[in-house]
Amino acid sequence: xxxxxxxxxxxxxxxxxxxxxxxxxxxxxxxxxxxxxxxxxxxxxxxxxxxxxxxxxxxxxxxxxxxxxxxxxxxxxxxxxxxxxxxxxxxxxxxxxxxxxxxxxxxxxxxxxxxxxxxxxxxxxxxxxxxx
Length: 132
What we know:
By secondary structure, the protein is mostly helical. Helix 2 packs antiparallel against helix 3.
């Protein structure tokens, strides 16, 4: 379904946006919170530097904002439509969902942000190997 060359492949499988080979984040397990947000400085396969400029990932905050607003709206819709919660009662489930999904949204926002600017290049790995 997802194959190399698709942006979704890089996003869902935590891969380098340039070569789709190396890992983007250091820790694959989202639930190891002390390491969950550590990124590699560059790709281990193609050498692409992830932090292209200082403060590059500040833009990922906007993506994270969009993801959390979406989660909040979906949670609100579910608890009001299916459980008949009032506006005030729906506040608690929304906060719980946002706290539970925070590690996922933070990681996703970074990889989505870099994929907006970097395109897959199947020749990247080959050119690096030729340089060695």
